[in-house]
């Protein structure tokens, strides 16, 4: 029924920061991010919902049926990767706004009154492309990251999170709503649902992830006038590390582990100078912590061999270790109940990527749903889900949020980490 | 006799833009480059020598004995690589200033009057670290590069050569002196002289050099949520290219060829995004054009195999091809004669690196001398020649310039390229 109004809004927001190849470029706290935030605020204002902005730039649009009651939070993030897709994050926020609109209507029609109030949330900087680490706003909300430290994080130009938020007028002072539960819908970022022709995924657990900060320290010299034997070329050694990080995955079962280097800088980066230093970040994720730890051990050994062969130093530091998070059993059952009532297919599914829901699941019971993503691509301009797939997801999110508003997850969370850090 | 005044000046200039590890950071048209330029201008002003600055920022300090006569140019460059050495370039300019000081004195004592006037030159942007290509000022002077195009070249921040020169007040309007011959002294940037215990090198020819501009175009995707089989990772392919560029040299005789990648950028360069595009520059140099062409052919074949294996596109373009330049036979004889008169050792030697003298050799007869460099390192903070080695070089340059001022190279140049471009 309301599918068309949702789709109109979705495609309108997809035009903000749109790229010629069909994606969007709306990194956190940029002018384009501000435009989507203004749109979010206007959507709420049109309906008389007050909007709060907290001190790390998270936005909350509030619907209060019972003054003083806690809130079910529903949302995702409007920021994107540089040249990212138009679905990742934005779909979940716009779906949440429309779900809230329907729920406000439904609650007003005298159905059993919700136990909780509702807040639609747009989390700050889920992507982490401009300001690392990712999942920043929800992690600060959940107490997993220190707010002051995050406000001091800088982008490549040296701009801090604090200044960037001030520049777009979205570093607020409002109190945060107290959360009772959390729900989020997102495109799958994988091709399991598409391959099996299933409309909805009930996310049961996140993958184990960790990053390696790798610094290769060689010696600067003249590219044209230093004999090959006299060189300690940081880029040649770093390139071997990149290939090792990629190739280590071939020693595990297919689709059980992923690994890559997405960030690399070299100094001095002059065409006629042998590089003295390369800094790179490797990202390793697997369904099991054991796979990550095994890959890490293999890499450390092989990287030290590269350092030895090239007579240079390679420093490797673990960071951003994110243990497996298990979503509450009851939240899976809620998603399955909703799917049955809508007559659509559902299956339990892992999330390989991190999400705001994974952070929120640490402090309240959380529910996460996936819709199919064509070709399973993400962080990519050709990311795509169909209008029909999206509309089904909005229906499912609406129904699930209704359950949460009535306390369906009470006493079912937060889940504890399935395991500690290594 | 004057060695101490030269050394005092040399070590004074080495303090401008000095780095903690003993090098200098004085990239072209920076505040530090301005400081060395101001020092050069003050040296000339103290002696009453007029200074001209041309439209590409080259500086000329003039000593005119015969109004209207052409000039013997003697000099090098005061700019450095980022975290470069304090000898590369600066030694040649300061040696030339002190040689000029001695020659002015000698010419004033009634010895046979010079046929030509003398100009000490500080060439703009020999290094090319901030603004590519390198050897810019002398190449514009020699008509090998287009001045308007060079003024439009930008650094990584988008600043043009024109604006950078204006910002330091060194984009001049003065006419260029007409050159009759050119002399330059430089540290070897190799370890041949050191290994053989010889004080002076008479540079006979330059190496054949060329660059390859390499663009790897893959597809952006989510590092954490894209199966390894679905990725087209531009950085993994680029890393294999970097290793190929390095390893191809092992198929040739030792010390006959060098090759490296000094410049590499990736997009979007986010820790959690598989890179979509990598741009890199490979630099290949050899004593013989045949070696470079053979290495290039091997690389093109191997790079196309990498592109095929990773299902992505790699575009390779040749640029900055610099054929072998032969210095005039007579200029080698002049250097050998000077060495004999000073009682020091001399040998003929190739230059692997490009120099302002190589550009000048295209339009006038040029003479290039090397002094030993400890460990043969260059473009590096630990670059080192001893005070004694430097002082001998100043004596040799003074004596050689005296020969050129009396027409010793007349009719002996310019040399033609030993071969054409491939």
Description:
2 copies of one chain form a homodimer. With 422 residues, the first copy, chain A, is an alpha/beta fold. In chain A, 34% of the residues lie in helices and 22% in strands. Chain A has 12 helices and 14 strands. The first copy, chain A, has helices at 3-13, 31-46, 90-108, 136-141, 147-151, 161-168, 192-196, 234-247, 289-309, 329-342, 356-360, 387-405, and strands at residues 51-53, 59-63, 71-76, 117-122, 179-187, 200-206, 208-217, 221-222, 257-267, 273-274, 277-286, 313-322, 346-351, 366-371. An 8-stranded mixed beta sheet of chain A has the order 1-2-4-3-5-14-6-13. A 4-stranded antiparallel beta sheet of chain A has the order 9-11-7-12, with helices on one face. The longest helix of chain A has 21 residues, at 289-309. The radius of gyration of chain A is 23 Å and the shape is globular. The N and C termini of chain A lie far apart (49 Å). The model of chain A is unreliable at 415-422 (pLDDT under 50). Chains A and B meet through β8, α8, β9, β10 and β11 of A and β8, α8, β9, β10 and β11 of B.
Tally of DSSP helical segments of chain A: 12
Radius of gyration of chain A: 23 Å
CA-based shape of chain A: globular
What kind of oligomer do you see?
A: homodimer
The two chains with the largest interface, and their residue counts, are: A-B, 73 and 74 residues
Number of strands of chain A: 14
Q: Major beta sheet of chain A, specifics?
A: 8 strands, mixed
**Cα distance, first to last residue of chain A?**
49 Å
SSE topology string of chain A: HHEEEHEHHHEHEEEHEEEHEHEHEH
């Amino acid at each position: 029924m309301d599918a068309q109004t949702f789709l109109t809004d979705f495609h309108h927001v997809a035009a903000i920061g749109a790229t010629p190849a069909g994606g969007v470029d709306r990194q956190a706290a940029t002018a384009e991010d501000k435009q989507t935030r203004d749109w979010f605020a206007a959507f709420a204002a049109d309906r008389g919902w007050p909007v709060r902005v907290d001190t790390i730039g998270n936005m909350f649009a509030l619907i209060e049926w019972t003054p003083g009651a806690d809130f079910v939070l529903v949302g995702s993030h409007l920021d994107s990767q540089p040249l990212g897709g138009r679905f990742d994050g934005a779909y979940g926020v716009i779906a949440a706004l429309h779900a809230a609109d329907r729920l406000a209507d439904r609650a007003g029609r005298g159905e059993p009154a919700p136990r909780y109030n509702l807040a639609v949330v747009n989390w700050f900087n889920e992507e982490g492309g401009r300001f690392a680490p990712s999942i920043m706003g929800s992690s600060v909300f959940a107490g997993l990251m220190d707010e002051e430290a995050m406000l001091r994080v800088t982008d490549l130009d040296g701009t801090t999170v604090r200044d960037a938020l001030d520049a777009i007028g979205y570093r607020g002072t409002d109190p945060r709503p107290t959360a009772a539960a959390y729900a989020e819908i997102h495109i799958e970022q994988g091709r399991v649902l598409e391959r099996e022709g299933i409309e909805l995924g009930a996310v049961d657990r996140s993958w184990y992830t960790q990053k390696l900060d790798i610094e290769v320290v060689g010696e600067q010299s003249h590219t044209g006038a230093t004999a090959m034997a006299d060189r300690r070329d940081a880029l040649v050694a770093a390139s071997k590390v990149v290939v090792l990080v990629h190739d280590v995955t071939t020693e595990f079962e297919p689709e059980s582990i992923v690994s890559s280097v997405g960030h690399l800088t070299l100094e001095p980066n002059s065409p006629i100078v042998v590089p003295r230093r390369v800094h790179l970040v490797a990202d390793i994720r697997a369904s099991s912590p054991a796979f990550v730890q095994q890959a890490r051990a293999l890499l450390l050994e092989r990287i030290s061999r590269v350092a030895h062969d090239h007579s240079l130093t390679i420093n490797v530091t673990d960071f951003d270790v994110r243990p497996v998070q298990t979503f509450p059993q009851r939240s899976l059952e809620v998603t399955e109940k909703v799917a049955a009532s809508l007559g659509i297919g559902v299956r339990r599914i892992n999330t390989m990527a991190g999400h705001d829901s994974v952070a929120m699941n640490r402090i309240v019971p959380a529910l996460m749903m996936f819709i199919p993503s064509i070709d399973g691509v993400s962080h990519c301009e050709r990311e795509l889900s169909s209008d029909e797939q999206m509309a089904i997801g909005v229906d499912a999110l609406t129904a699930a949020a209704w359950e949460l508003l009535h306390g369906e997850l009470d006493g079912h969370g937060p889940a504890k980490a399935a395991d500690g850090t290594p």
